[in-house]
Design a protein that fits this description.
7-stranded mixed beta sheet, mainly beta, 11 strands, 4-stranded antiparallel beta sheet
Length: 118
């Protein structure tokens, strides 16, 4: 069983930066791929970024490439999402997720709200 807890969300202005964190419980964190997803009001949840268990592979949705960076610290059981040059369209609830491989997610956090004003 893995439990995930996101933090770091909040209010920002366009162009600002925020860093989200996702702390995971469980001994197998370092063996899991970790992903970030987001859901804006009235929209479906969408993929944002993912990182492999070793950190050697990262993938991003096109709209955040060059602005967001996903990273992980296996010693701290934590995955991060550094968000730079925020835009109003980045406003959403951000969720982290974990799973045995990239693209397979078994566990989800409760989400953290990010609101970007213009």
């Amino acid at each position: 069983q893995v439990q995930l807890l996101e933090s770091g969300g909040g209010l920002a202005q366009a162009g600002d930066s925020l860093r989200l964190s996702c702390a995971a419980s469980g001994r197998t964190f370092s063996r899991y791929a970790m992903g970030w997803f987001r859901q804006a009001p009235g929209k479906e949840r969408e993929f944002v970024a993912v990182i492999s268990w070793s950190g050697s592979i990262t993938k991003y949705t096109d709209s955040v490439k060059g602005r967001f960076t996903i990273s992980r610290d296996n010693a701290k059981n934590t995955v991060y999402l550094q968000m730079n040059s925020l835009r109003p369209e980045d406003t959403a609830v951000y969720y982290c997720a974990s799973g045995p491989t990239i693209g397979t997610y078994n566990y989800w956090g409760q989400g953290t709200q990010v609101t970007v004003s213009s």
